[in-house]
Amino acid sequence: MSVKLIGRTSNLYGKTLWEIIGNLRDAGIGRLITRNSYNRYDEPCFFRVLSVEPTAQIENKLRKVIVHVEKIFRGKHYKEPVEIYRVSYKPDYRLIPKDEEQLWWDRLANCKPREKVVPGSIELPPLMRLVLERDNKEFSPTLPLIIRSGRDNVAQSDVTKIVPYGPSFFKNQQSS
Amino acid sequence: MQHFCKQELLFGKLLCKTKPVNQQPVRFTRKPRWLPRAPSKMFRVPVRPKISTEERNELFQLFTTYRTSMKSIKKQLEYELETSYTGQEVLQEIANKEEALWKKCLEINDNWNAEVALARDERLAIEREAQRKLILAQLIEKEEEKKKQLEAIEEIVRLEKEKSKSYITVENIDQAIDKALDNIVNYKYAIDVAGNIYYNNELEKQTTETGKQQQQVKVVN
What we know:
Chain A: GO terms for molecular function: structural constituent of ribosome. By secondary structure, chain A is of the alpha+beta class. Chain A has helices at residues 17-21, 98-110, 126-134, and strands spanning 32-35, 46-53, 66-73, 76-77, 82-84, 93-95, 116-123, 142-144, 155-163. Chain A has 2 domains: 17-110, no CATH class; 116-163, no CATH class. In chain A, the strands form 2 sheets. In chain A, strands 1, 2, 3, 4, 5 and 6 form a 6-stranded antiparallel beta sheet that branches.
């Protein structure tokens, strides 16, 4: 009997975390798990389970579970373990079989770190320049660009480089 | 369109047009959020947009560029705004303005003080004059009072001096004793309704003085 899916489609396919963890011996501690939505990245992204806690004491959500994992995201090994609780209900997880585990670690070892160099400043937007010239103010002809420096942001700004104001000044600099 | 509807309603009310022609409200024809889905759209599944990878990357680039540029422009404008409040020149200008204002205030205060001092001097002079007059009047009054008192005392002294001529002194005590012994007056008597005087329960004819006394008593009765 073939299954006919009706209704809205979803980006997620796979199992919830508890569906995977609950069927494994020793709650799957030490096993590797990945998310299907991370397939969009070329670099390996996966979790290594460290500990599992039930959530019955917190709230009555059968699909949720608290899991502490080592996280590897886009080839970068996080220093601190990460807790997966709020997104554990998503049917997006996939267990990596034991014979493929070494393959993933090798991918991680062979993965070259992401690099991205962006220009440090742009020229003044035309209207802004006109306004400043009209007001006879002293102004520098360039604007410094502020690059995000979060945990997952790898972009480095090249201070010496100045690009004209336009819609695609990052385009040629991307290397990832 | 909405404006048009309002106008229509307004004129409809004014002209007693109960049914305006061709009126089609636009704003309030939509389904409110809290109502369920329309029955005709109950089982409709919206088609998801299919975006190719290239287009997605292009959009990502464009958005990233836009966000970063806007962020730096915003920062620049914020910096300009901040310097317009806290820049060195602006602060200096504010300080100069405050200094000028302070000087002006001081000048006004000095002028006012001078005015008030002039008025105060005038007032004090008038008050001093009034006080002087008052004190003078009081002095005169006191002097007169003193004079009166002295006169009264003089009068008392004069009367007493006159009286002192009949005083019994060491020199004339013998004469006074003699005089007293010569004129013994007996006040131990009784009086009846008719004014007769009785000494020792006996009616006695009195001297001329006694007669006068009797007459007085009679008048009293």
